[in-house]
Amino acid sequence: MSNKKGMQVVGAVLLGLQLAGQAQAGVNAMVVVEPTARKAGLTVSQQGVEAGLGKVLGQPVSLGTSEDLTDMMRATRSGGYELFIGPAQIAASALSRGYELLGATQGSEPFVLVARADMADLGALRGKRLYLPQQDSIYTYMARGLLTQGGLSMQDLRVAHERYPQAGLAALLVGSADATVVRQSEWKEWQGQYGQAAKVLASSEPVPGGFSVVVKKDMPPEARMRLAQWFAAVPASTGLSQARFKPEMQEYKRVADLGHFTPIQLPGVTRVSAREAQQLQAKGAVLVDTRIEKEYQARHIRGALWLPYVEKSLKDVAFNPALDDFSALDKTDKLKPSQAVIFACNGAECWKSYKAAKMAQSKGFKTVYWLRGGLPEWEAEGLPVEAAGS
User: Which pairing describes strands 27-32 and 179-183: parallel, antiparallel, or unpaired?
Assistant: First the structure.
């Protein structure tokens, strides 16, 4: 046998072993159930979905169900499942981490923050009663984002978490709540009868409804195409609705931005893009990486100074800095209050740079910038990174 033929045989054997290993391992899928939509989760047939997906993919599929959205958000970051079927906030997190959208079971619509008619603006809600469903629900998720963008914290209000989202409008009517967050369609229906009793103080951009289906991009293209076709015409016997809607990626990005919870602006601090941060660096500004040492050692913005922000306080605009440790700022001899400084961490979802910028401001730093997009935005722009010691 020639060397060339021998290499071909070896290659074929290795490929066969790889495919066999994949088939044996199977595909892990997860249905993530919104706390306010448990009924939709109960209708899903585990056996029916596993059988259908297994036929499409030609390998075993293991389907799980979870109502723990906090845990599932972590799973999207770690890539724990090849396939997620869940609410918009789960899909939004996954789509920014190597997943592709196959479709959604409902169209998109905004969420609105509705308050008593005598409330002038969001600021008037301080100390007032906010009715919301469970803490992990999409309603609460959107409420937190809308309040944060308005410069308010959940701690600024008296929040009551109840079971039924639409009941918040009834609570407004009877005077047991001062504000709530609902889908726009729910507000429109209620407004026809009781509109004079309340008004909209804030509105989100459209948010995909129902279940969104996302799959890892490293799954073969043909398999992803077959999955998209199957979910678009999924049999009623599976208990799933057909994922015939294809929301714009920008809609999920907006959800992710709200869900990251860091405000869009920080008073007294200038928010900058990655490109702007690079230009400021070139003019002498010091870019500070506030992440943990392991992250910094693995990869960081070229030229970044490592000053870790040890975070124990809540991820909230009303965080308590006394609970955190940013002594690295006081100990370093490489940064003075007279210098321009840019704080960055792991992107808009990371609060360390937000808190560090606010703390530096309180310590007398006059020229403070905040790179909200952090390392992810920097890399997305193709800007230079390095590892410690390189």
Answer: unpaired
Alpha helix (H) residue ranges in the chain: 3-25, 38-42, 46-57, 69-78, 88-95, 138-149, 167-174, 184-194, 221-232, 249-260, 274-282, 293-298, 327-331, 352-362, 374-380
pTM of the predicted model, to two decimals? 0.63
CB 372 within 8 A of CB 348: yes
According to DSSP, the residues that pair with 270 across neighbouring strands are 369
Collapsing DSSP to helix, strand or coil, 324 comes out as: coil
* 268 class by beta-carbon count within 10 Å (0-12 exposed, 13-18 middle, 19+ buried): exposed
Question: What does the pLDDT read at residue 241?
Answer: 93
Domain that residue 367 falls in: 270-386
Q: What is the DSSP letter of 349?
A: T
Q: State the Cα–Cα distance between residues 127 and 104, nearest whole angstrom.
A: 37
Residue 308 pLDDT grade (very low, low, confident, very high; cuts 50, 70, 90):
very high
Residue that the structure tokens 């609105």 belong to: 112
In the block, tokens 């989202």 appear at 165
Burial profile 179-195: b = 16 or more Cβ within 10 angstroms, e = fewer: bbbbbbebbeebbeeee
Q: Are residues 215 and 101 in the same domain?
A: yes
Nearest to 341 by CA among 320, 313, 363: 363
Asked if residue 317 lies in contact with residue 330, where contact means CB atoms within 8 angstroms, the answer is no
Task: Identify whether residues 194 and 343 lie together within a single domain.
Answer: no
Contacts of 204 (CB under 8 A, 6+ apart): 110, 111, 112, 142, 145, 146, 254, 258
Going by C-alpha positions, the residue among 82, 79, 12 that lies closest to residue 53 is: 82
SS3 of 27, please?
Answer: strand
Residue 11 and residue 95 in one domain: yes
Cβ(285)–Cβ(323) under 8 Å? no
Q: Are residues 118 and 81 in the same domain?
A: no
- Given a contact cutoff of 8 angstroms between Cβ atoms, the answer to whether 351 and 315 are in contact is yes
* Domain co-membership, 195 together with 248: no
pLDDT at residue 12 in the model? 42
